[in-house]
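[audit] Reproducing an earlier prediction to check determinism. Same input, same settings, fresh worker. If the tokens differ from the archived copy the diff job will pick it up downstream; this log only records the rerun itself.
[audit] input (429 residues):
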Amino acid sequence: MAAAAEEVFLQLTILLSVAVASHFIIKRFNQPTIIGEIGIGVVLGPSILGYIVHGGPPPSVGPTLFDPVLITIFANLGAIFLLFLIGLETDVRAIYQKRNIAVAIGGVVLPWAFGFLTAFFMVPNDSLMVGTAETPRFVMATFVGATLVATSTAIAAAVLLELGMIRTEVAGTIMGAVIVDDILGLLVLSISLGVAGGAVDILSILYLLGVSIAFIVLAMYIGTRYFGRLVTWTQARGLKVGLTHAGFMVAMAVAFFAAFMSEAIGLSAVIGAFLAGAMFSNTPLREDFHEGVAFLGAVFTPVFFISLGLLVNVWTITSDLLLFGIVLLAVAFVTKLIGCGLPARWAGMSKAESLAVGYGMVPRGEVGLIIALVAQQAGVIGPDLFSIIVLVMVIVSVLPAPLLRKYLMMIPKPAPEGAEVSVAPDPKA
């Protein structure tokens, strides 16, 4: 037991130390810190360090030098704290805007359709063999297309936070569209599983859609009406007896419970964390919660981004799959950019804003990786196709960050709360 504890402490020391080092290095190039964190993950994973330690290609897919259970727990906590923090800064009414729904739909239909076509026509026949069985090309292509559907909130959220632009219209559009995007992504997964099983259960799909919408609506209604008052009351009572963080502890309990419920009904846990943060966005304790979660996120969130790099194992990729991977990467990038950017532009956003929305929706993350993992576990794709998909997910998550930052810098930042806004005099007056 003691040896296991020592190993955990050593691994956390390495992960946090290299994360800080990557921040200093990447800042010299004026780029978001998440690029350095994902890059560090690739270096520490089986692709580079694992190859050196084993004296050749590592024997397995995924992290080989770090405890996968530890990485998973810390990465999940990092994602939850990050999305809770974003929820605190988000106007939940933005979720229900028609523009956000249009952006989400465009960002689902195009990637799924073109991802399907790319996989159907380009995946080599050898990659259809999983063990001793051959996967039908239509089933394989359905899952590959599905992996391109869901956007990762964490990438865009980190850049928006770093630039202090969480309260901009662009941030509201991205965060609102991502929730709709996540629901649609799960519907796509349900359809893909139905195709793999030989049928599509329409009732199951309708049930999932209804439960997801009901969860979001009820969570926001109950949370803003009752949980917001509960944490405020708890904090006030705690201060009377010398407890300075009672309200914050209750808020964290609500966040974890919302994440649990979100996972239980089939949504990603980060959606529950985001909704929990949004519950407290209008309470007097918002700034206190923001400070507390920011410190927690400083420890856990880098591990989430490092974990994406740790999943990459380039040594399982065959030469026949390289061309397919390059084309799939281009499809993943362009279809999200067009599918989300154009609806934003048509909805009246400026060119810089619509491009920022498009680039903000390009990164993929946990949901896409989950779909790929489900496909592998179901025997639909093999280790080689799984690795190329993971590599595409990681690269397409890194590429948009500098472009997102570029176009966000062109958008005026919102004035701080309580600050006076100067208005230029009317020349006609």
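[audit] rerun output stored. Observation attached for the diff report: Confidence is low (pLDDT under 50) at residues 419-429.
[audit] end
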